[in-house]
Amino acid sequence: MNKIKMPKIIICLILFLVTNALRAQSIEVSASVDKNPVMVDESFILSVVANGEVDRNAFDSSFLMKDFVVGRTSVSSQTKMINFDTTRTTTWSTVLIPKKKGRFTIPVFNIAGSKTKPIEVLVIPVSANAGAQGRDLFITTSVDVDQVYLQQQIRYTVKLHLGKDLQRGSLSSPTLENADIRQIGKDKEYNEVVDGRRYRIIERSFAIIAQQSGSYTIEGPLFEGEVIDNTRQSFGFFNRSKAVNRVGPSQNITVLPIPSNYDQHWLPSDFVQLDDEWQGNTNDFVAGEPITRTITLTAIGVVEEQLPTISSVYPDSVKTYPDQAETTTVERDNSLIAQRKESIAIIPSQAGELVIPEVRIPWFNTITGKTEYAVLAEKKLQILPATTQPTTTIPINPSVQSTAVDQPLQPSPANLEVQNNNMPQYWMWLSVGLFLLWIITLVMWWRQVWLLKSATQQSNQSVVRNTQSEQLLWKNLEKALNKNAAADTQKSLALWLGNYINDKNVSLEHSLKVIDDAMLSKAVNTLLAARFSKNQSEWQSKELQQILRKMRKKGSIKKQTQQNLSPLYPAT
User: Fold this and answer.
1) CA-to-CA distance for 23 and 14, rounded, in angstroms?
2) Is the pLDDT of residue 560 over 70?
3) What does the alpha-carbon distance between residue 173 and residue 208 come to, in Å, rounded to a whole number?
């Protein structure tokens, strides 16, 4: 029985293999281009045609990206039936733009076992074309500087020259690895004569901030659109259009590293300035009353993430209550302008002269190549004594003055009535109001202390046995930070910091003591205060996220740093 089945199985396998081979041989594949040679910024279409049953996803153009800018690929299928003989044709059309001049070979494509023939394409520069001066559309690019320092702004300008009416189109952004690229300002539109021909020019500017030093190439932007083709016959009210694709020329730049002798916060800029504003009249400051000071740091050619915190120092005779900093980046005159505002409430405790020390922010001048300082000069304020309740004198009765000295003066009921009438009534109401305000302040202070204690207890009780990897802990923390979720951030932060100090099963408070970073502790205190206040939605995670990213980049603390620390949970 088994001997009879085996030959049948072998025959079926042979028939299957022969059928597939005949099917592969029946598929014919060819490749062609619509123009050759082409100019260096001109697009052409590569068409690959397959006759037979093939998968629509069988064409892969990714390996062409080495020598060409690869645009969109369109797929079309066509089926014909003649005398019960069915044929199917699949065509892939891909837009290609050469990156540089020279001779390039479009390699062989393997579609369902059938291969195309290689195609050699000649790419010539624009000047080598006899009709280059009469081009209908082309792109030019330029940079204001080709050598910059790390994180210094590069002003990149793109000009789209249109010799025909544009029906539709889109212009992409330039590309540069490890860089922050954003458009600045609005598009400018004007007319200009180039090589004897009038063009409509659309100009667009970009700010490029490189995040890594070295030599790089800024790849030009890609334009895809349609222009009205007057060479073709139009019917009725409809104009014929022609698809066009152009790519801007690339620009080579050199990004210099931070100078080795620079040990301050890195802030490369053309101009940095510090300003401050004082609320109210600076000549009427009174002891015990709050003074609001707002310090503004302004820098040109940077974004808000590059600005440092403003370190201001105050004497021990005042109490300070800083507010959350406000940062923003605006565009003006084709440049980025970043600002950071920090407001702080100052309450002097005693009268006299109050000396506010100067504030210094270091920055690197990209024009002179030297370190400079933005300075707020030292300020001297005169603090007036606190306002006290004036004493009221009691009028003396002339008849009493004639009394003997050894007889004590006894105020009569008439004198007491005159004394009470002479006391202003508003002092009584003012005293009552101040007493009520004191009671309210006391209640609010007690409530704030209670909330902070609850937050500390909750952070201490949130210690769990953590067995997750650092990557998963950081992913959960980043997700909470991106959502500005205070509660989830506090929970994930405690787990990640425990992993950071190589002691996973500790509280958030213990991790902060081990790390001993003032900026981190300040950011966490802001988080806790926002978490347990009424305005929970106002907390922003940007400052804390920047601090944590810098910590993670440096790596975790080694276990040797914890040998002198007492364990949080001593063994019993």
Assistant:
1) 14
2) no
3) 11
Q: How far apart are CA 237 and CA 485, in angstroms?
A: 58
Specify the DSSP class assigned to residue 545: H
Closest CA to 90 of 60, 53, 125, 121: 53
Apex 159 CA angle, 366 and 186, nearest 5: 75
How do residues 304-345 score in pLDDT, each as one tens digit? 999 999 988 999 889 999 999 999 999 888 889 999 999 999
Taking only the tens place, the pLDDT of each residue in 281-304 is 666 788 888 889 999 999 999 999
Please enumerate in sequence order all residues whose Cβ is within 8 A of that of 412, keeping only pairs 6 or more positions apart, or say none. 397
Q: What is the pTM of this model?
A: 0.56
pLDDT top residue among 445 and 560 = 445
* Long-range own/partner contacts, residues 116-123 (CB < 8 A, 24 or more apart): 116/29, 116/30, 116/31, 116/48, 117/30, 117/31, 119/31, 119/32, 119/33, 119/36, 119/46, 121/33, 121/36, 121/37, 121/38, 121/44, 122/36, 122/37, 122/38, 123/37, 123/38, 123/39, 123/40, 123/98
Buried-exposed string 249-266: b where 16+ CB fall within 10 A, e elsewhere: bbbebebbeeeeeeeeeb
DSSP designation for 109: -
Distance CA 560, CA 158 (A): 55
277 pLDDT tier (thresholds 50, 70, 90)? very high
